[in-house]
Amino acid sequence: MVVRYYFSLLLLILIGSSCKKINQPGSIDPPVGPPAGSFTFNELKVNDVFSGFSYYSVNQKPIIKLSFSAAIDKNTVAAGIVMKNKGNVTVALDITYENNDKTIILSPISALQPITMYFLDAQTSLKSTDGSKLLSPITINLVTAIDPSDKFPIISDQELLTKVQRQTFKYFWDFGHPASGMARERNTSGNTVTSGGSGFGIMAIITGIDRGFITKAEGLSRIQKIISFLKTADRFHGAFPHWIDGNTGKVIPFSQKDNGGDLVETSLLMQGLLTARQYFSEENEVESTLRSDINALYIAVEWDWYRKDNSNTLYWHWSPNYNWDMNMPIRGWNEALITYVLAASSTTHTISKTVYDNGWANNGAMKNGNTYYGVQLPLGPASGGPLFFSHYSFLGINPIGLTDNYANYETQNKAHALIQYNYAKANPKNYYGYGENCWGLTASDDINGYLAHEPANDNSVISPTAALSSFPYTPEESMKALKFFYYKLGDKLFKEYGFVDAFSLQHQWFADSTLAIDQGPIIVMIENYRSQLLWNLFMSCPEVKTGMKKLGFSSPHL
C-alpha cells in the first residue's frame, strides 16, 4: 500500500508536469534567471527620471543611477563603466553606491560641455561580488543642454542684421575665385565655380556696395572680371552649365549626363546680371560697356530652343553628348519661376504664355489649397517643400502684391515660411532643439551628405539660410531664429563666412561648410527686407515688366 501510494503520487506529479509543457490555457512558466555566472542590468535613471536610453537637454553634472541584479565588485567599475564624448575623450566620474552595492551612482567630476553628445557604456567586463559578469552591455546617450548665456555681445537688431550681411558677404568677396571672380560652389571647391551661385554673388556684391562694405569702384571691377570670364566660358545654345572651371571656363559635369546647358542655373545667373545692369546706370564708358556686355549674354540664351522639340514646356538640361537624356521638364511649384519669367522677357528667344501655362503651371496642377499647421498653402507640394522654393526666384522678383491666374505670391511665400515655423513649434518628431527660436528646413548639407530637408523629409537638420532668407515674409519669426543662432549657438554656428550651412542639435552635428547657394539668399533677402534694393533694381528692367505682364502677372511694381 505504501509503495502504491508513492507510485500514484509520482504519476500525478509527472502528469501535472507534462500538462504545463504543452502550455495549457492559464498556465504560467516560471521566470528564467540569468545564465549561471552572469547578472543583469535592472534599472536606469538620469536625474531621477527614466526615458529610455537617450536623454536630451541634460545638465552639465547629471546624476546617473544604474541598478543591477547583484552587488557590484567595485574593483571592476573603473574599467567596466566608461563615459566618453563624440571625440572619444574619456570623462572622469565620481562613483558612489547604494542598495547594498547593487546600484551605482555616477556623476562627472568636471562639468560637461554644453550642446555636446556623451556616451556612457556599461560593459560585460563589469563583475559582481561573486565573480559573475554583466550579461549584456548597455549604452546611454546623453546630449547636454544649450548654455543659455549669450556668446557674443548684445547689439541692436539693425546692427545684427548688418553684421550678418557683412560676414556673409565675405564668402563672395574674400573667397571669390581669384581668376574668374565667380562664386565657388562651396568653401572646399577649389576651382569649381557655380553659375547660379554667382548670380547670387553678384547681387551680394551690389548689396555690399550699397552697405559700404566695399566701394562702388571695387564692386564694379569684380563684376567686370566675372563678365569677362562669362564671355569666354562654355555655353550651350546660350545657356551656361551648372559648374564651370574657374580657370579655364570649361564645363565641369554636375553628373555624367549633366555636362551641358542648365537653364535654371542660367536664369539664376541672369537674374543677378540684370540686377547689376540696372545698378550700374551711369552714362560713362565703363558702365555703358558693362551694360552692353550683360545685354549680349542675356539675349544669347536660346530660351525657346530649350522647349525640346518645340513642346510647350521648358526643359532643364541639354548636353552635346547626351542631348535631352536628362529629360527634366521645368514644372512648378519649385525654385524655377525665374526661368519662365526671363524666358518670356527675352527680346530674342521669347516664349508664349501657353508655354508658361502648360509647362510651368502644368495647366493649374501646381495648385495646392490645403491647410498645414493652421496655414493655407496656395501652391506646391504638401507642407510647401524646402524653403528655397520661396527664395531663389524672389531674390529679384518682388512677391509683394504679385498675383497671376494661379496665386498671390506674397501669400504663397509667407504661408510657406509660416508652415515651417509652426511645424518646428509643433515638433511632431520630437527633435531636440526645435521650436519658435530654432526652425527652417531647406536643401543643404546634411549629416550624411546633402538633402532637401522639408517637413515631409525631416531628419533633424536645420539650415540657417531657411529662416534667415525668409525675413521679408516672417520678420518676427526670422529674427527669433537669428538671435538664437547668433547669441545662443554662437561660434559653433557663426564663423568666417557667416553661418555654417546646417546643424542638428539632435545629433550634436554642426557643418563646417558654407555654400554659395545658401549664403547668397541670406545677404540678399535680408537686404530686400530692409530696403527692397534688389527687388527694386530687378523689377525696373523693362524686359521683365513686359515679360511678366505677358504671362498674366499683376503687381504695383510692374
**CATH H-level superfamily of the largest domain:** Glycoside hydrolase 144 (GH144)
Classify the fold: give the CATH topology of the largest domain. Glycosyltransferase
- For the record, the CATH architecture of the largest domain stands as Alpha/alpha barrel
Q: What structural category do the secondary elements indicate?
A: alpha+beta
Rg estimate, integer Å:
31 Å
Mean pLDDT: 93
Spatial arrangement of strands, main beta sheet: 2-4-7-6
Largest sheet: 4 strands, antiparallel
Count of DSSP E strands?
23
Number of helices: 15
How far from one another are the termini? 115 Å
- Large-scale geometry: elongated
The total tally of domains equals: 2
Per CATH, the class of the largest domain reads Mainly Alpha
Annotation keywords:
single chain; 558 residues; alpha+beta; Immunoglobulin-like; Glycosyltransferase; 4-stranded antiparallel sheet; 4-stranded mixed sheet; 15 helices; 34% helix; elongated; disordered N terminus
Q: What can you see in these coordinates?
A:
Residues 329-542 form the Glycoamylase-like domain. InterPro entries: Glycoamylase-like_cons_dom (IPR019282), SbsA_Ig (IPR032812). By secondary structure, the chain is α+β, with helices and mostly antiparallel strands. It has two domains: 42-144, Immunoglobulin-like, CATH 2.60.40; 157-550, Alpha/alpha barrel (Glycosyltransferase), CATH 1.50.10.140. Helix content is 34%, strand content 15%. It has 15 helices and 23 strands. Helix 3 (157-173) packs across helix 4 (195-211), helix 4 runs antiparallel to helix 5 (216-232) and helix 5 packs parallel to helix 7 (285-299). The radius of gyration is 31 Å and the shape is elongated.
